[in-house]
């Protein structure tokens, strides 16, 4: 403290800038007239370089002296007196960005919503709200008594296998995984601490919200997600800053919600790719949750019907404790590796006769779910005469058909295929090739089950729930509605096509899609997995997804593929990438590439052990800054010659390059 106990007068701030070289603290003197409003976490505006230019910034610290001996510029103004960047979120942003060789301010942009002045003024005018009554803890059912409760009290870490059933509540039929998280959240609130519950998309969020509504008063629940309007999201964000513990529910960015007294972090279905942040520094929600749990000593729960290899690795290391349902629940799964059936109607519907018969019987008492691989109608059109793929005569794009009566159109340029002819044989007729999407499947099943109500659910036609009346529900993977009382039968079609996708994660993705659909069935209702055999079918039929994840992880270790090791993808010009890779101490066998990714751009992947991550991230970050500053000097010189390429780009733990090979 300075002499006389006066308040420190220097603000250390993060500048809101995308430039990597500015990812550090800058010092500004606090003028006396702003002293009362400036606090750690508030938004301010500060002068930048030339006179009259100002930039936004966040106050990270307030001190009385710094090493700089010159004259410090003054903070220009306080944008808002609300400390929107909580200390715990600032620390998490810094740690996550350093792990990913990125900028902390890029994470702050995701964590802190855009300011809404009217909402903020109303919140400030309302003052401190009255304290809420104490919440009573609800027992976490479906597991050994006290296991989950003790973990929340002790701040432990769990990998929970979800109970593959539903439950009837006042608000409707709710999946048991959502009820488990809601019960766990009451345990945290009863202990006087907040809970953060993350789900991949709005369908899961609606399920979780319904479960929470059945156990908690609405003032204890905060929804914070990207689908909200800007005012609603900012209003919810400000509620998180209050003194009372709350349950904060949202998608991937909810992991950065402010919660100083945090008792629980939980992720449902962590293997879902929607948890991958598409913006730099591309931090996955799972990784941010692990960092925040360690930082704030909160309990951590990963829950799912199928276990990801990342979670399995942490279980094997002893970092997570595995918890299974007690008593165990084994869904009735019947693999049928043969597509064709003896019944003519079954063959028309693309399902085995046994599954067709089971669906017909199930439709007498309730809805039946049919999962397909893709939306739409025709996957491919081909010439009837020669079989060559039908292509657009204008741009050579593939032709597609939205319905049986629609005119084929180009999937690239949208041109209608009027007066089309085959460039190979001059034929003028087309035919459908391969299994269709949701629309075509609905058409086929409509003929196979005449008079039955048909419901199609996909990305264009989102449906969250259906009633208990008989219906055939055709849904794409991940878009399956919840049926009241559970589905009387589940048919998993196109399994062979799903499993044939070129991807490092194809096995665990398929198992996750199929397991989540199977869990929507009523207790004892059959699930038919069509066209798939081997280890995947066995894991689903025996409901031992964790064993499949264990074997998959063992294979990844032998091949040195993630998550057995970490990877970093370095993209840029050949010289920039070569320079960056040359600065690393990486064995030659762990450097994959370079491969060309576009005009003048290449990509190289480096593999490394987890222990080397901190040092390697720092080295790559230094290369990114060096590349950015070198480019800036070249631009300032305005030298003649070819255009200067974009800056070096680094992405950690990205499996996309493994999707289709190097």
Could you give a short description of this structure?
With 662 residues, the chain is an alpha/beta fold. The chain has 18 helices and 30 strands.
Architecture overview:
- The termini are far apart.
- The strands form eight sheets. A seven-stranded parallel β-sheet has the order 10-11-9-12-13-6-14, sandwiched between helices. The chain has a six-stranded parallel β-sheet with strand order 15-26-25-16-23-21, sandwiched between helices. It has a five-stranded antiparallel β-sheet with strand order 2-1-4-3-5, with no helix packed on it.
- β10, α7 and β11 form a beta-alpha-beta unit.
- It is built from 18 helices and 30 strands.
- α1 crosses α2 and α1 (about 85-100) crosses α8.
- The longest helix has 25 residues, at about 615-635.
- Residues about 1-5 and about 635-645 have low confidence and may be disordered.
- With about 650 residues, the chain is of the alpha/beta class.
- The chain is globular.
């Amino acid at each position: 403290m300075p002499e006389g106990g006066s308040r420190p007068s220097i603000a250390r701030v993060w500048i809101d800038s995308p430039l990597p070289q500015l990812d550090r603290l800058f010092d500004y003197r606090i003028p006396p007239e702003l002293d009362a409003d400036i606090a750690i976490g508030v938004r301010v505006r500060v002068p930048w370089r030339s006179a009259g230019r100002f930039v936004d910034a966040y106050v990270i610290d307030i001190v009385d002296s710094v090493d700089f001996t010159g004259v410090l510029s003054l903070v220009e103004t306080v944008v808002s007196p609300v400390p929107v960047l909580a200390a715990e979120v600032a620390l998490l942003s810094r740690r996550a960005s350093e792990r990913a060789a990125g900028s902390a301010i890029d994470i702050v942009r995701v964590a802190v919503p855009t300011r809404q002045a009217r909402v903020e003024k109303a919140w400030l005018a309302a003052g401190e709200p009255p304290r809420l009554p104490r919440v009573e803890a609800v027992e976490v059912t479906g597991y050994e008594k006290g296991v989950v409760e003790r973990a929340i009290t002790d701040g432990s870490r769990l990998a929970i296998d979800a109970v593959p059933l539903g439950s009837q509540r006042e608000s409707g039929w709710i999946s048991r995984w959502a009820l488990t998280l809601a019960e766990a959240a009451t345990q945290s609130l009863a202990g006087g601490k907040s809970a953060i519950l993350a789900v991949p998309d709005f369908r899961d969020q609606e399920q979780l919200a319904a479960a929470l509504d059945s156990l908690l008063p609405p003032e204890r629940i905060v929804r914070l997600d990207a689908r909200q309007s800007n005012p609603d999201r900012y209003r919810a964000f400000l509620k998180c800053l209050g003194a009372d513990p709350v349950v904060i529910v949202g998608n991937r960015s909810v992991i950065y919600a402010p919660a100083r007294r945090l008792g629980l972090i939980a992720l449902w279905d962590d293997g879902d790719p929607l948890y991958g942040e598409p913006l730099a520094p591309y931090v996955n929600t799972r990784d941010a949750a692990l960092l925040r749990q360690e930082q704030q000593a909160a309990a951590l729960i990963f829950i799912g019907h199928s276990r990801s290899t990342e979670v399995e690795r942490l279980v094997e290391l002893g970092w997570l404790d595995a918890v299974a349902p007690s008593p165990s629940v084994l869904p009735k799964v019947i693999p049928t590796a043969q597509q064709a059936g003896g019944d003519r109607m079954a063959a028309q519907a693309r399902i085995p006769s046994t599954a067709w018969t089971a669906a017909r019987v199930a439709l007498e008492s309730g809805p039946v779910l049919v999962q397909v691989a893709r939306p739409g109608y025709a996957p491919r059109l081909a010439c009837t005469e020669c079989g060559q793929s039908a292509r657009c005569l204008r741009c050579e794009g593939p032709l597609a058909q939205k319905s049986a009566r629609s005119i084929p159109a180009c999937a690239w340029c949208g041109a209608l295929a009027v007066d089309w002819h085959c460039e190979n044989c001059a034929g003028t007729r087309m035919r459908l090739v391969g299994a269709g999407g949701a629309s075509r499947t609905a058409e086929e099943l409509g003929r196979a089950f005449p008079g039955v109500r048909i419901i199609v659910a996909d990305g264009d036609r989102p449906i969250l729930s259906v009633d208990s009346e008989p219906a055939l529900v055709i849904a794409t993977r991940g878009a399956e509605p919840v049926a009241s009382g559970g589905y009387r039968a589940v048919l998993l079609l196109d399994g062979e096509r799903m499993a044939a996708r070129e991807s490092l994660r194809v096995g665990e993705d398929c198992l996750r899609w199929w397991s989540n659909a199977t869990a929507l069935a009523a207790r004892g209702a059959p699930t038919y997995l069509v066209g798939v055999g081997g280890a995947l079918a066995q894991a689903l039929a025996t409901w031992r997804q964790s064993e499949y994840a264990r074997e998959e992880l063992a294979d990844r270790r032998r091949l040195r593929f993630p998550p057995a090791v970490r990877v970093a993808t370095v993209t840029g010009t050949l010289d920039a990438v070569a320079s960056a890779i040359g600065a690393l101490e990486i064995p030659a066998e762990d450097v994959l590439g370079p491969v060309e990714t576009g005009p003048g751009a290449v990509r190289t992947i480096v593999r490394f052990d987890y222990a080397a991550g901190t040092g390697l991230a720092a080295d790559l970050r230094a290369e990114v800054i060096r590349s950015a500053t070198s480019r800036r000097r070249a631009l300032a010189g305005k030298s003649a010659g070819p255009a200067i390429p974009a800056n070096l780009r680094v992405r950690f733990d990205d499996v996309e390059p493994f999707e289709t090979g190097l």
